[in-house]
């Protein structure tokens, strides 16, 4: 199948397919008649795997390592389990940081609700941001 067909079946863009091909995550053969890249069922399987692994938070580099282990005949499952066990607390920390950030944003909006808009006067850029610390 051609790039467009693989992308459609795999529910990604053609540029995503080309990107994964450039990275070596999926492979294509060249059609000798027209030079088009042709993908097989293995490419579709790998494309679906990449999408699933990405949804679990694995980076393309980690996915490449998973493929390398699998391609060499070793089970990548222990590595996958270890990686995900590390990702869970990292993700929880990111969520906590985002929640704290959201609180700051909401506080700023509440504080700015009654503040007038200012015009730059050579001494300030945006009074909302510059005065925000003083409104807390």
UniProtKB/TrEMBL annotation:
Keyword Transcription: yes
Organism lineage string: Bacteria, Pseudomonadati, Pseudomonadota, Gammaproteobacteria, Oceanospirillales
Organism field: Marinomonas alcarazii
Pfam families, per database record: MerR_1
Membrane-spanning ranges: none
SUPFAM superfamilies xref list: Putative DNA-binding domain
Domain HTH merR-type: 1-69
SMART domains: HTH_MERR
The protein's name: DNA-binding transcriptional MerR regulator
Keyword entries, A-Z: DNA-binding, Transcription, Transcription regulation
Molecular functions per Gene Ontology: DNA binding; DNA-binding transcription factor activity
Keyword flag Cell inner membrane: no
PROSITE patterns recorded: HTH_MERR_2
